[in-house]
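Long-time lurker, first post.

We've been arguing in lab meeting about whether pyridoxal-5'-phosphate would sit comfortably in this protein at all. Half the group thinks yes, half thinks no, and nobody has a model to point at. So I'm putting the question to the forum: if I give you the sequence and the SMILES, can you give me back a predicted structure of the complex? Inputs are below. Any interpretation is welcome too.
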Amino acid sequence: MSITEVDKKYVMNTYNRFPVEIVSGKGSIVYSPEGKRYIDLGSGIGVTAFGIADDEWKAAIIDQISKVQHMSNLYYTEPCGQLAKMLCEKTGMSKVFFSNSGAESNECSIKAARKYAADTKGSDYYTIITLKNSFHGRTITTLAATGQDHYHELFQPLTPGFVHAEPGDIEDMKRLVSENKVAGILIECIQGEGGVIPLDKDYVLAVEKLAKENDILLMVDEVQTGNGRTGALYAYMNYGIHPDIVSTAKGLAGGLPLGATLFSEKVENALGFGEHASTFGGNPVVCSAALSILSRIDDALMEEVKEKSAFVFDFFKDAKGVESVSGMGLMIGIKTTKPAGEVLAKCMENGVLCLTAKDKIRLLPALNIPMDVLKEALEVIKEAAE
Ligand SMILES: *Cc1c(COP(=O)(O)O)cnc(C)c1O
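Top reply:
Settle the argument with this. Predicted structure of the protein with pyridoxal-5'-phosphate, as tokens:
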């Protein structure tokens, strides 16, 4: 049996895979078993922040895996502590909880917000407000947080205590704050799965003000927008807000599974001994990988990300078949006249791997994609969209 047949027979039927197998790669280039070359503009959905098989990242992993690959959280390991320190120093946050995925990093935000509200205002203050069209994960609780009905329908009853506000409409947010006993507001500054839609700055600032005035925790889901993706270490920094809790994952460890939930000083003790845990969370190999990634997300790299972003926006301005371009940094949505799926298929045929988000082509290339490789890929997209 071919790997396609084996996979179809034995892997649970939840992914509608493209007929492409990837066996190797380097940086932003990947290869099929037949040696077909693809430029990877999806980076594993914003995960391989420095591309495939990055040398520095690989060395960090190999070094740590040769020492100790895992200990339980009953003991100290150096990479876990050092990564938490680096995250706090780069953000001004106070403490970090490590998990293994985006959904889990949001679960931790939600648990902590409920616990904090219960401690400070009473256990009936458990409601979390999220936005319509948001995406926060696939667990029963993060599905409840996700503000899209079609994700909910088949899995009722979901975790109670979530209400969804109209994004961009501060009056709707105020209404939900007054109608509910609210523990926290959870937002993506740029809705990713929802179609690469940045929130307006004025709106985000107004949400922050509303949260502060009502002693409600402001939580930002940086799972997709985080770790340099938008030209700042975290997208909230582009908005000038100071969230109480930040959750992140995808790009953080450059291709190994890691979730992190960051807490500001105010909520640093929201969760105490025995109140949250993860067997794999803070794994030393994964944290070493993340240290190699995070230490390289500096001002110079962010300038490059912004330059490449500006180039992409400019490139598609007035391009035939392109209706609009949205996003920030190297998180970009392209609304094409043709169906996005059709454009994506054409690009794949011509050696470029893209993503979609709703009705848009979505690009999440490696942060260090070389300019000439990016240009080559953009030409392919332009031709496919015409
Ligand atoms: C991908 C994503 C998640 C879920 O992350 P997983 O690692 O798949 O659990 C949550 N929130 C946002 C904004 C995401 O983009």
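For your lab meeting: The first strand starts at residue 24 and ends at 26. Residues 101-103, 106, 135-137, 188, 192-193, 221, 223-224, 249-250 surround pyridoxal-5'-phosphate (CB under 6 Å). Whichever side wins, do check it experimentally.
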